[in-house]
Design goal:
- This protein has 374 residues and is mainly alpha-helical.
- It has a domain at 158-368: MetI-like (MetI-like fold, Orthogonal Bundle).
- Helix content is 68%, strand content 1%.
- A two-stranded parallel sheet has the order 1-2.
- The protein starts with 23 loop residues before the first helix and ends in a 6-residue tail after the last helix.
């Protein structure tokens, strides 16, 4: 033991407090003013917001006519958005020409769709198999019976009277659900070693991808009846559904094929080493990994499909955008901002659905990003 000991006779000098690495000020500095370039972009963005936000606020809220207002208020000079017009015509925007006393039928379909979709899409909810059966099998049957009518004492409502958001959702949901399995088969067929199957799949994919959707819908509406037996008619909505599904399947097939090509050869060989057949190898090893890699591309195609449903006017269907255009020409609500308000409402609806799909895809990307986290 040492004979010497050291005892401090004066206080140690005070040290500066530790630098904060959390909080609002630190976040603002790191994200907005970290470098001179970031500072310049932040200032320019702030000036743009100061220029753009006040007029938008005045149009959408400040000078707008709220729901419950009158058409005379919407005709005042320098008036903003006419939300009273939207509130007055909201039923037409949702149901089209569907009979008013039968609105409960699409409402039941909307409610069933929302409940079953939530049960199927929420990961922590159990009983996925019954939910999938209800969504993919029972819901279409119930929807056809309720919406078309003609059975169980329900009043017949032809598809010509459907319109608005109802048609938009039917086209998008059916197109998405039917195009995915067809796209997987096309992607597998394009990689097949059988010449006939490979040639047919390549021909279909390249032919459909070489023309715009409006051409496919035009062919389904005008040209298809010419090839049918005389006296045979095909429902307009069914034509649109078939055209949209085939068009989307061709694009999705290439996205899925890209994901399959990103899978290393060792995964295929591992499946063969385990003694798995072709379909089990693809279903349990290759496709799950391929689909995980191409989630952004798949959801991007879904979003494009949802927006492209506005092209069904070519077959005489009144989707949400066409319903808005129809009511914008109505004289009973003629006002300076009537058309702009209608298009703003349609854009907001499309944005809500597309943004929701985008955020949900990001959720699954983070959830499935387990093998290569950064």
């Amino acid at each position: 033991m040492s004979k010497f000991a050291f005892v401090r006779r004066e206080l140690a000098p005070s040290l500066p407090p530790p630098v904060r690495n959390t909080g609002l000020i630190v976040w603002v500095h790191r994200r907005l003013f970290a470098t001179p370039g970031d500072t310049l972009l932040t200032v320019l963005a702030g000036l743009f917001l100061l220029w753009a936000v006040p007029p938008l606020w005045g149009f959408l809220v400040g000078n707008a006519v709220p729901p419950g207002g009158t058409v005379e208020q919407c005709r005042v000079e320098n008036v903003g958005a006419c939300w009273a017009y939207i509130a007055s015509e909201i039923e037409f925007f949702i149901y089209g020409f569907y009979p008013m006393d039968e609105y409960w039928r699409p409402n039941v379909v909307f409610a069933l769709f929302g409940v079953l979709a939530a049960l199927l899409l929420m990961p922590k909810v159990p009983y996925k198999v019954p939910s999938a059966i209800g969504f993919f099998i029972l819901l279409p049957i119930i929807s056809i019976v309720l919406l078309l009518g003609g059975s169980f004492g329900l009043k017949p409502v032809p598809t010509e009277q459907w319109g608005g958001l109802l048609v938009t959702l039917i086209l998008s949901v059916v197109g998405i659900c039917c195009s995915v399995p067809l796209a997987i088969l096309l992607a597998l067929g394009r990689q097949s070693k059988l010449p006939i199957i490979k040639t047919l799949c390549i021909s279909f994919i390249e032919l459909v991808r070489a023309v715009p959707l409006i051409t496919v819908l035009f062919m389904a509406s005008i040209m298809l009846p010419l090839f049918m037996p005389q006296g045979t008619t095909v429902d307009k909505l069914l034509r649109a559904l078939v055209g949209v599904t085939l068009f989307e399947a061709a694009y999705l097939a290439e996205v899925i094929r890209g994901g399959m090509q990103a899978i290393g050869r060792g995964q295929y060989e591992a499946g063969q080493a385990l003694g798995l057949g072709y379909w089990k190898r693809m279903g349990f090893i290759v496709l799950p990994q391929a689909l995980k890699h191409v989630i952004p591309g798949i959801v991007g195609n879904f979003i494009s499909l949802f927006k492209d449903t506005s092209l069904v006017y070519i077959v005489g269907m009144k989707d949400l955008l066409e319903a808005v255009k129809t009511k914008n020409d109505a004289l009973e609500w003629a006002a300076p901002t009537q058309a702009v308000t209608g298009y703003v409402f349609a854009a907001a609806v499309f944005w809500i659905f597309c943004f929701s799909m985008s955020r949900y895809s990001l959720f699954w990307e983070r959830r499935l990003n387990t093998g290569h986290k950064r």
